[in-house]
């Protein structure tokens, strides 16, 4: 999942992306994880921290596999670790 942050850094390279409050939606910075557009790179950078903390948050207590989303972890636990009933 390191490539998420590599992509974000690549966005910063484009000077037109660094302008604050870009009015053209097509030129706004996009989150590479959830593909949402943001008003400026500051907002995007702040948003990326959400993905980072979520990544740390949902760790399987059985096999220590990490998941971005709570429902991904829940379905993993049900599928892999829960005995069939
Ligand atoms: Zn996102
Ligand atoms: Zn697991």
Automatic annotation (TrEMBL):
It comes from the Eukaryota. PROSITE patterns: ZINC_FINGER_C2H2_1, ZINC_FINGER_C2H2_2. GO terms for molecular function: DNA-binding transcription factor activity, RNA polymerase II-specific; sequence-specific DNA binding; zinc ion binding. SUPFAM superfamilies: beta-beta-alpha zinc fingers. It holds the Pfam family zf-C2H2_4. Keywords: Metal-binding, Repeat, Zinc, Zinc-finger. This is C2H2-type domain-containing protein.
């Amino acid at each position: 999942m390191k490539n998420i942050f590599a992509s974000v850094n690549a966005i910063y390279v484009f000077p037109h992306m660094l302008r604050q409050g870009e009015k053209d939606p097509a030129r706004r910075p996009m989150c590479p994880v959830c593909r949402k557009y943001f008003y400026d790179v500051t907002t995007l950078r702040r948003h990326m921290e959400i993905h980072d903390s979520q990544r740390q948050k949902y760790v399987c207590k059985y096999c220590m596999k990490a998941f971005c989303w709570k429902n991904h972890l829940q379905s993993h636990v049900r599928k892999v670790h829960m005995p069939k009933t």
